Each structure stands twice: as structure tokens, then as C-alpha cells.
Amino acid sequence: MKLIKEKRWAIVFSLLAMLLWGSAIPLIKTTYIHANILPDDPGGKIYIAGIRFFMGGLLTFIYFFLFNKEEVKRENVNFKFIVIIGLLQTCLQYGFYYIGLSNTLGSLTAVIQSSNAFITVLFSVLLISDERLTKKKVIALLVGSTGLLITNLNSQGSFHFKFTGEGFVLIAQTVNALSSVLIRKYGRNLNGFLLTGSQFVLGAMPLIILGAITHKSNVNFDFVLFLMLSYGAFISATAFTIWTFVLQAHSASEFGIYKLFIPVFGTILSILVLGEDLTINIVLGLVFVLAGAIILNKKQTKKGV
Hints:
By secondary structure, the protein is an all-alpha fold. It has one domain (2-297). It has 12 helices and no strands. Helix 1 (7-35) packs antiparallel against helix 9 (223-249), helix 2 (42-67) packs across helix 3 (79-102) and helix 8 packs across helix 9. The longest helix has 29 residues, at 7-35. Residues 300-305 have low confidence and may be disordered.
């Protein structure tokens, strides 16, 4: 996708991907309800996740045959890297995410997801030689982290944190950030459609197998569930394909900040679709994480800043 190589279009497509990812939060929660997944059934949750991403992989391959214009040579396909990304970005990330999301509010999850941008900066500095931890990045990290802390304060002012809820969502974001940087470092020459589709299918299979063996719920498979999973597959195929192309063409630490728009879209949609309350802590948390994004994206005015 040559258009994404232009920065302005890369920003537009990045925001589109974030809107799609934000819409996944209320979708997943309503899918659990419709599919009759029990709250204490992690196997059922990852089973649903596996089916969604397997369908997303198949859809991405359809995108490849419809829209791909570059020649793909077998010797240029790094199968080992694709397997690693599949296990990290699909299997491990969404195993934690689907369970964590079920144990916390969708609006709260949306804000916690904003940590992805800051963790991406840290991994970029550690793993990519031309990325530096500047004063500006440190300030952005501190401001954004403050937002996350505010979001997790309850009405009594004490810190609320459930490991299998907010903790699992945070682990998922850490794995996703690592995957984003690895794609930027090792996957920039791979075909974006094939990388996305292959890692979805490979990463989804362990989730499906483990979920099928361990789930306790009597899953309600009907046409409505098929439509929900199909939209989830569309989100995955479209957003991840766009994001892969963006990371292949642009700096992971610079564009990773656009993931801060996921909490904005996710919070709004969670309130509209799930009927959740917009608390002052969530509003303040969003303000701080968006402030971190502005700081990180501010043009350099001094050397090293």
C-alpha cells in the first residue's frame, strides 16, 4: 500500500485502525452475553477469541488476493518470524486480553490500552538502535502513566487493580507493544497481508484447541453470533493489516502514540453500547494520556528534546 508511505495518509489510516479496535471492546462483551459464555469460563472466552482470529486470518488472505500488487517470493518469507509473531500477537496477547476484558469495565479497559503507546516507546528504545529515550519521551511516559493511575482509583481514592482483569489487559498490551517493535525491526520487508493473515491463523489455532478442550459454557452458536464474529474478523483483518503496513513504513515509537486514540473511541462506544458510566477518573485519565500523546508528538525545538 504505497499510500501509507505518505505520513499524512499513514495518520489517517492509523486513526481508522484505532476506531476499529475501539469498537472491539463493546463487541467482545456483547458477544460473551449472546454466546452464553459464563463469567468463570476462561476456556469459553479464548475459544471465542480463537474463532474470531481464525476467521480474521482467512479474511486477510482474501484481502491479499484482491488487493496485493507486489510479488511474493518464497525465499523472502520468514516463516520463523511469522510463527513467533502469531504466538505473541494473536495467541498470547488475545488469550490474556479476552479474559482480562471480561473481568473489568470496557471503558476502563480502553484507558488501560493506552499504556500500549508508552510501552512501545520503551521497547523501541531497547530493541531498535536508532531509537533514543529523549527527555520528551520520558515526560510523555510520566504524564501518560499518571493518567493510567488516576483511571484505576476508585470512588474512595484507593487504588483498584484486579490481576485477572486490569492486570491481564496490561499484560496483553505489553505483548502487543513488543510485537509492534519486532514487526518494525524484523518484519518490514515481509508482505503485510501475508504476515497478518498467517500470524492470525497460526496464533488462533492454539486458542481454539485449548478453548474447545477446557470451555464449560454451552456456547450459543447461531446466525447472530456468526455476524458478531464476522465483524470481529473484519476488525482484526482490516485494522491489523493497516497497522502492519504503517509499522513497516514509519517509526514504531512515533506512530505507536496513535494507539492512544483507542481509549477515546473505546470509552465512547462502551458508554453508548454497554451503558457504562463516564466517571471523573476515566475523564481525567483520558486527559492525561492524550496529553502524553501531544507531548510525544510535539515537534523538536531543542537538540535532544
